[in-house]
Amino acid sequence: MPLSLLLQYLFSGITAGGIYAVIAIGFNIIYNATGIINFAQGEFAMLGGMIAISFTAFMPLPAAIACAILVTAALGGVLEFVFIRRMKNPTVIQMIIVTIGLSILLREAALHIWDEKVHSLPYFTGNEISSIRLFGACISPQVLWVLGTCGAVVVSLSLFFAHTPAGRAMRACSADRIGAMLCGINARNMVTLSFMISAAIGALAGCVVSPITATTYDCGMPLAVKGFTVAIIGGLGNSTGAVAAGLLLGIVEALCLAVMPMAFRDVVVIAILLAVLSFKPSGLFGNAASQGQKEF
Amino acid sequence: MRRRSFALFAAGIIAVQVATGLTGSDFLLTQLTMAAWYGLVVVGLCLLMGYAGQISLGHAAFFAIGGYTTAVLSTVNLLPVKTAPVITALAAVGLTVGGTDAWGSEVLRLSPWLSLVAAVTVSALVAYGIGMPVLRLRGHYLAMATLGFGIIVYRLALGTPLLGGADGLSDTPPFPLFAGLALDGSRAHRLFSYYFSWATVLAVMFLLVNLIGSRAGRALRAIHGNEAAAGAMGIDTSRYKLHLFALSAVIAAVAGVFMTHYTGGIGPAETSVMKSIRYVAIVAVGGMADLWGALIAGTILNFLSLRGFFGTYDDAVFGAVLIAVMLFAPSGIVRKRKL
Question: The complex's ipTM?
Answer without folding.
Answer: 0.85
